[in-house]
């Protein structure tokens, strides 16, 4: 007689993150999930974010609005609107439940009435686990990442997990580290207090830029 698998709940999801694994759906229309613990893990050192001169100019030019947790579920759906996505309905419901309990957050970039990009992820202790990002205009996801790192640094976070390393993330300072190194960093970050909401939602551009690049 085989045992039934444990139902996947928000609590079990947080437990999984705390031991270094995360779920992915095989495709958007498939409700099945599988667990991932990469041999090489992507992170962005919180003192190592790279903000190029052109990105600084774009940020200082303005014309956009950065909102925190404005519409989390819609932000997730936005991240899923691509040809291939692992964000299926099971993932959508689970992370929405995490958001409702204060354990998942979105950073959204708006231009007027349109969301032009953003990202979302999960926080436990002083670790933030980036899940997905999207751009509908050039640099929109990079702007979201700048605001995220400023918020994490202001709130005392110690680890920004990006799961994998991509050329896009590498251009912002992302690096790949071994599984063992990642697990050590994770265990150091989890017991530490951190607050995602320390940074004022109305913080001005220069404050954000200073926060995310100070000491880097």
Topology, element by element:
Layout: H1 10-18, E1 22-25, E2 33-36, E3 40-43, H2 53-61, E4 65-68, H3 72-80, H4 89-100, E5 104-111, E6 114-124, E7 127-135, H5 140-154, E8 159-163, H6 167-170, E9 175-178, H7 179-189, H8 205-213
Parallel strand pairs: 7-8
Antiparallel strand pairs: 1-2, 3-8, 3-9, 4-5, 5-6, 6-7
What does this structure look like?
With 216 residues, this protein is an alpha+beta fold. Helices cover 36% and strands 25% of the residues. The mean pLDDT is 91. The strands form two sheets. It has a seven-stranded mixed sheet with strand order 4-5-6-7-8-3-9, sandwiched between helices. The protein has a two-stranded antiparallel sheet with strand order 1-2. The chain has one domain: Leucyl/phenylalanyl-tRNA-protein transferase, C-terminal domain (Aminopeptidase, 3-Layer(aba) Sandwich).
Silhouette: globular
Q: Kindly estimate the percentage of residues that lie in beta strands according to DSSP.
A: 15-25%
In the residues, how many domains can be counted? 1
Low-pLDDT runs: none
Structure classification = alpha+beta
Query: Distance between the terminal alpha carbons, to the nearest Å?
Result: 56 Å
Average of per-residue pLDDT values: 91
Question: What labels describe this entry?
Answer:
two-stranded antiparallel ribbon; Aminopeptidase; 7-stranded mixed sheet; 216 residues; alpha+beta; 25% strand
Give a short summary of the structure:
With 216 residues, the protein is of the alpha+beta class.
């Amino acid at each position: 007689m085989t045992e039934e698998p444990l139902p996947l709940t928000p609590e079990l999801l947080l437990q999984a993150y705390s031991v270094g694994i995360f779920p992915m759906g095989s495709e958007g229309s498939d409700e099945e999930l599988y667990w991932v613990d990469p041999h090489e893990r992507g992170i962005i050192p919180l003192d190592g974010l790279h903000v190029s001169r052109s990105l600084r100019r774009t940020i200082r030019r303005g014309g956009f609005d950065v909102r925190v947790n404005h519409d989390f579920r819609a932000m997730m759906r936005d991240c899923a609107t691509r040809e291939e996505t692992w964000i299926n309905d099971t993932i959508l419901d689970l992370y929405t439940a995490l958001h409702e309990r204060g354990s998942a957050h979105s950073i959204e970039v708006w231009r007027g009435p349109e969301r032009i990009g953003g990202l979302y992820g999960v926080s436990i202790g002083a670790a933030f686990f980036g899940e997905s990002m999207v751009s509908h205009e050039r640099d929109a996801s990079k702007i979201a990442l700048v605001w995220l790192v400023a918020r994490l640094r202001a709130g005392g976070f110690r680890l920004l997990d990006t799961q994998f390393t991509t050329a896009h993330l590498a251009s912002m300072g992302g690096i790949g580290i071994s599984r063992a190194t990642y697990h050590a960093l994770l265990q150091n970050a989890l017991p530490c207090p951190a607050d995602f909401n320390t940074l004022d939602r109305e913080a001005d551009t220069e404050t954000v830029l200073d926060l995310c690049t100070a000491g880097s």
